[in-house]
Design goal:
Layout (H helix, E strand, L loop, with lengths): L2 H8 L3 H9 L7 E2 L5 E2 L2 H15 L4 H13 L4 H39 L5
Antiparallel strand pairs: 1-2
Helix pairs in contact: 1-3, 4-5
Length: 120
């Protein structure tokens, strides 16, 4: 798979994929005889996971730690699971905060509709 295909599947830009590769956030990518990267389905899945972790606010430091554990092998699965569970808990807390803010905004918008004589 070419880098442009992986970028489309993962949601990452080509530059970001190259950065992740250079910084060790993803396992080494095989290269063809012409030097072009040859991504596997596993590489694409890994990059999609990194994209999701980044999009949900996981710090790069934590992503780097997670990637290092992944590259160490299956013995680190419990620690990787723990990292993902902690991230999931942080997302749950953010989700609750966002829901509270959304409810407050809905209340305020309804109040403005009342003041303006509009119904929502």
């Amino acid at each position: 798979m070419r880098i442009s295909e992986v970028a489309a599947k993962s949601g990452l830009s080509i530059d970001t994929i190259r950065y992740y590769e250079k910084s060790g956030l993803c396992p080494p990518i095989a290269r063809g005889r012409d030097g072009t990267r040859q991504f596997t389905a596993e590489n694409a899945e890994w990059l999609a996971l990194l994209s999701s972790l980044r999009d949900t606010g996981m710090p790069t430091k934590d992503m780097r730690h997670f990637a290092g554990l992944y590259q160490t092998g299956d013995a680190t699965i419990p620690e990787r699971k723990h990292l993902l569970l902690e991230h999931s808990r942080r997302l749950d807390a953010r989700h609750e905060t966002i829901n509270q803010c959304k409810a407050l905004l809905a209340h305020k918008l309804a109040r403005y509709d009342q003041i303006l004589g509009q119904s929502s």
